[in-house]
Amino acid sequence: AEQVQAAPFEAVYPQTEGLSSSAIAKCVRQLLPHAELLPDPLPEEMRRKYRLPSKAEAVRAIHRPATEEEAFAARRRLIYEELLVLQLGIGRMKNRGSAATGAPMQPTDPEPFWASLPFSPTGAQRRAVDEILADMAGEHSMNRLLQGDVGSGKTAVAAAACYFAARNGMQCALMAPTEILAVQHYHTMQQFLEPLGVSVGLLTGSVRAKERREIYEALADGSMTLVVGTHAIFQKEVSFARLGLVITDEQHRFGVAQRTLLADKGGCPHKLVMSATPIPRTLALMIYGDLDISVLKELPRGRLPVQTFAVTGKLRQRAYSFIRQQLEQGHQGYIVCPMIDDRDESELQAVSSYAESIQAGAFSAYRVGLLHGRMKPAEKDSVMTAFRNHELDLLVSTTVIEVGVDVPNATILLIENAERFGLSQLHQLRGRVGRGSAQSYCILMTDHVTEDCRTRMQIMSRTNDGFQIAEADLQLRGPGDFFGQRQHGLPPLQIADLSHDTQLLHEVQETAKKILEKDADLSAPEHGALRLEVLRLFRRSGENGRN
Q1: Neighbour order of strands in the sheet with 200-203
Q2: What is the pTM of this model?
Q3: Which partner from 108, 170, 358, 543 sits 20 to 30 angstroms from 525, CA to CA?
Q4: How far is residue 131's CA from residue 451's CA, in Å, rounded to a whole number?
Q5: Tens digits of per-residue pLDDT, 198-209?
Q6: Can you list the residues of the chain whose pLDDT is less than 50?
Q7: What is the rounded CA–CA span in Å between residue 298 and residue 278?
């Protein structure tokens, strides 16, 4: 066996079942002398310009560095390559998205739409609509992200875009990640658009076969203008007469690879992505690098910031008393628990038994409903309808209410075991109240008073600004956990860390931009290896599928 000189640094590899760290180290030692066989995606000119070692040198040095500087240089080189491949892939998506539009539209005055609303739009909403309409009247198909904090009025902006498309004789599709949210969007879009003569349909997994066939026919012959739905809109039976606008809500839940699937049903339609998850700029550039961005940072007139209090279980009876005061005033409330099933060994509040105990005890004079993710869609629907119609006073729920549920009369939210949730998720949950003109309140209950938990509760109590909260969340949890289990749909990063490698990311974005300006398809001989890496990375991402 070839003698390999002992290095001053010893690599330690994560063990996996049946494979020890030393066994992995032995394999690596045998393979390192053959590192030259690895293809190097970075052209020599680029390596010289940015002082990057070759792939072989970097791989050898990352496993067996002679000095700390060598290890740093190797890591920097591998991160540079990983981020460059990712940025080139996202950049190529953007170039594809900016193809000549298949849905050319004539400028249309949005005033009739604004005048039909029961409220005055904010300046931010008007600006976002102006940007969207300018895009849709342009030569290229729109590729825009509408990012707004909870309750900032994104749906009205999306409705204005649908109105504009309808006036131009085009159809629209709005896709939401859950059935609850799809149903809610459907009702909202009906209220906004049907008085203006725009027909709206709903397509989800639980729509009956007869209704589904009717929707298919209405979309195919062009008599239905807007269809709102879940992944059911992807089905091959769905075809459009003139699809001009595709809107996806909470896009990071679908995954980058899915962004084009619905668009393929129309010849390069305009695309609008909505997100109520405020995303720090660094991550927004990564995830939505292929989109132009509009931001809504203004709350609709008459909305008051939600007052937030963090308490321990010792104050439970006081919290219950405060909730009862809100219910006595004719308002409604939510109690959120982090679990679905009873587990004997767990001290966490199990949502079913919790709902029963408060209905029998502290809230026996009120109508208590239960909502969780394991219920059938029709059951969820009927509970939400009852709550919306004020046939229920208090809704005990898991996080299925996290995104989009909109009941303006709900003014109080209690979150049990608040330590179990990330900051951004707490902020999303808090956004279920404060949607009307009355003062609303959020109570975070936790007995888990670690330093980290205390920090999070203080941030929540101090600010209602989702973008500040997202930045704090990114710093506290790191990007890997920011969206939970890989919800953002990006190809997995093996070595780069977005919270620490920001400076390098900006350098890489500039490089990627310059490469694509000169060689949009990466077809030049010097970019052949890069092109293969991009295709490989995004094919792997596609296999991760939707979340």
Answers
A1: 200-203, 226-229, 171-175, 243-249, 270-275, 143-148, 292-296
A2: 0.68
A3: 543
A4: 44
A5: 999 999 988 899
A6: 1-4, 256, 342-348, 480-489, 541-547
A7: 13
